[in-house]
Design a protein that fits this description.
The complex is a heterodimer of chains A (115) and B (117). Chain A is an all-beta fold and 115 residues long. Chain A has no helices and 12 strands. Chain A is globular and about 45 Å long. Chain A starts with a strand and ends with a strand. In chain B, 0% of the residues lie in helices and 48% in strands. In chain B, strand 5 and strand 6 form a beta hairpin. The chains are: A mainly beta (115), B mainly beta (117). At the A-B interface, strand 5, strand 6, strand 10 and strand 11 of A face strand 4, strand 5, strand 9 and strand 10 of B.
């Protein structure tokens, strides 16, 4: 079975500063994918970034980057230059090698950006 | 291009009632799935489908039925609603990824907030 752990239930960050959201995972699959989704207060799920387990480089998408440490089984999301619109829940998820579409989600981290 | 649509947005049921949550996508995605999100928690997979006529159970399938007669539609049926099924339900779709290595970004609908009294 796969498991995702997000140990930070909530975080405050000052506007324009960077914030790191922790995600650790447990899987016995040789290949897998890691995803981060954002859920604002309006409720929709917004895809942010993806990292494949065999990718050699850390993924980046605009202000989002992923600090992927395979040996430690962690995939932390870094948001640079935080904006007020970044206030939301953030979910880490993992997909399985045998069923690439099935996602297992962590419990989420709530981020509140202060002006 | 509407993406993934869900109806209704809100629903209140009494214990024992049945209903169907509708989900449709217009991106020709093979894979569709249903998740539920309980307060303060992440999403959990209920059922999924890898194509028309093919469905399978996810992590929390009890009390729910699905069918996939077309590529576009994937309805979720609550057979006899219980208060434990009070949740927000999300439908998602994506291209079918054989390997987890591929970025099979899932597109989510806006969700249906269901309350069972």
């Amino acid at each position: 079975a796969q498991k995702i752990t997000q140990t930070q239930p909530g975080m405050f960050v000052q506007e324009k500063e960077a914030v790191t959201l922790d995600c650790t995972y447990d899987t016995s699959d040789p290949s897998y994918g890691l995803f981060w989704y954002k859920q604002p207060s309006s409720g929709e799920m917004i895809f942010l970034i993806y990292q494949g387990s065999y990718d050699q480089q850390n993924a980046t998408e605009g202000r989002y980057s992923l600090n992927f440490q395979k040996a430690r089984k962690s995939a932390n999301l870094v948001i640079s230059a935080s904006q007020l619109g970044d206030s939301a829940m953030y979910f880490c998820a993992i997909s399985r090698s045998a069923a690439g579409n099935k996602l297992t989600f962590g419990g989420g981290t709530r981020v509140l950006v202060k002006p | 291009n509407a993406g993934v649509t869900q109806t209704p947005k809100f629903q209140v049921l009494k214990t024992g009632q049945s209903m169907t949550l509708q989900c449709a996508q217009d991106m020709n995605h093979e894979y569709m799935s249903w998740y539920r999100q309980d307060p303060g928690m992440g999403l959990r997979l209920i059922h999924y489908s890898v194509g028309a006529g093919i469905t399978d159970q996810g992590e929390v399938p009890n009390g729910y039925n699905v069918s996939r007669s077309t590529t576009e539609d994937f309805p979720l049926r609550l057979l006899s609603a219980a208060p434990s099924q009070t949740s927000v339900y999300f439908c998602a779709s994506s291209y079918l990824a054989v390997l987890a290595e591929k970025n099979n970004e899932q597109f989510f609908g806006p969700g249906t907030r269901l309350t069972v009294l």
